[in-house]
Structure formats: structure tokens, C-alpha cells
């Protein structure tokens, strides 16, 4: 998808979500190193997963919007469709 790019606000939002996920994963690793109980670790793992998911959805949304603004981008819309369906 060579023509689909995030604008600066979208890029910042995705980066913030990924940074949050990285912090949560670091916390999970510390919890595992400290031999904390699984039920204490799992909520942090779920939160990290959600942060990555939200970053993914934000990028898909940006790609979908770009294709909507450029209806001739059939190849890219097919790629986006495949990526979107792979999440299901």
C-alpha cells in the first residue's frame, strides 16, 4: 500500500498506543520475573493486547479512509480488505 500513509496526528496516536503496549509488556515481563501469580499478570497482558489491537484498527481505518478518498485505488482496497478480514 504505497499511497496510504498516516497523517501526523494518526501517526502520533498509533505510536502512543504502541508505546503504551510496550510499557505494559515490560510490566508483564517484570511480573513474570518476580514470579507473580497468573491471575495478577493476565490483566496486564490483556491491556497490552488491546493497545496493539487499537493501534492496528487505527491504521486500518486510515487506510480505508485513504481508499475512500481515492476510489481508483482498487489494488490497495483489496489489500486492506484482506488485512481487515485476517483480524476476524
Description:
The chain has 88 residues and is mainly α. It has helices spanning 8-33, 38-69, 74-86. Helix 1 (8-33) packs antiparallel against helix 2 and helix 2 (38-69) runs antiparallel to helix 3 (74-86). The longest helix is centred in the middle third of the chain and has 32 residues, at 38-69.
Distance between termini? 21 Å
Radius of gyration: 17 Å
Number of strand segments: 0
Mean pLDDT: 86
Number of helices: 3
Characterize the overall form.
Answer: elongated
Q: Secondary-structure element order, as H and E?
A: HHH
Question: Helices and strands: which structural class?
Answer: mainly alpha
Which spans of ≥5 residues are poorly predicted at pLDDT below 50?
none
Major sheet attributes: none
Q: Estimate what percentage of residues fall within beta strands.
A: under 5%
Helix fraction, binned, reads over 70%
Summary?
This protein has 88 residues and is mainly α. It contains 3 helices and no strands.
Can you tag this structure with a few keywords?
88 residues; mainly alpha; 3 helices
What's the arrangement of secondary structure elements?
Elements (H helix, E strand, L loop, with lengths): L7 H26 L4 H32 L4 H13 L2
Helix pairs in contact: 1-2, 2-3
